Amino acid sequence: MKIGDLNIQDINPIPEIETGDEKEVYAFYGLAAFHAQCAEKALVNFVMAYRLLDNKVLDQEQWLELYAGINSKTFGRLLGQIKTRVELSDHLLAHLDHTLTKRNWLAHDFYYDRANHFLDLDGRIAMIKELQELIELFQVSDRAIEQLSLKVWSYFGVTEEWIEKEMAIQHEEYLSGKNA
């Protein structure tokens, strides 16, 4: 898939509908919320990278304080900051604005707007199909933001390989703590 000049690849497969029961609606909602949060955290990292370009040297306390401030912002506020700092294609901006709208709808109104759908199998299947579309939307947005973010982070020596290595270290630390 292409968004502006970004080529988005390798999104995770989206599960198929199995039964259409209530638990499956909740499971797909959870997966959609997870991917919405991933896109939001990608924006946090993107804003953080741009903020670091403005600072000469930060000690650990300043770094954590800056990150905490950025991390407390909503998807919409983060997107607003990016729009004022970075020139993005109209197509990508439209995609991210759509992502924001859908993220907010998912978080605040999805179950309210679909309350009657929840009462029968056809309605629940329609809900799941909507959630599958949102899962794809949020994954594509996450990947697009990550691509842009990596361009800025590379200025600081942060590469995909470095990130993968750090994730492996954190996973090992988690497993060590879990097995202790």
Question: How many domains, as an integer?
Answer: 1
Number of strands: 2
For the residues shown, what is the average pLDDT? 92
Main sheet specs: 2 strands, antiparallel
Shape, per Cα inertia axes: globular
Q: Identify the strand order in the major beta sheet.
A: 1-2
Structural class: mainly alpha
Strand content: under 5%
N-to-C terminal Cα separation, in Å? 44 Å
C-alpha Rg (nearest Å):
19 Å
Spans of at least 5 consecutive residues with low confidence: none
Strand-and-helix sequence, N→C? EEHHHHHHH
Task: State the main characteristics.
two-stranded antiparallel ribbon; 180 residues; globular; mainly alpha; 73% helix; 7 helices
Structure report:
The chain has helices at residues 22-54, 60-71, 75-85, 90-108, 110-113, 121-153, 160-179; strands at 2-3, 6-7. It has 180 residues and is mostly helical. A hairpin with a 2-residue loop joins β1 (2-3) and β2. It has a two-stranded antiparallel ribbon with strand order 1-2.
How do the strands and helices of this protein lay out in sequence?
Blueprint: E1 2-3, E2 6-7, H1 22-54, H2 60-71, H3 75-85, H4 90-108, H5 110-113, H6 121-153, H7 160-179
Antiparallel strand pairs: 1-2
Give a short synopsis of this structure:
This protein has seven helices and two strands; from the N terminus they run ββααααααα. By secondary structure, it is mainly alpha-helical.
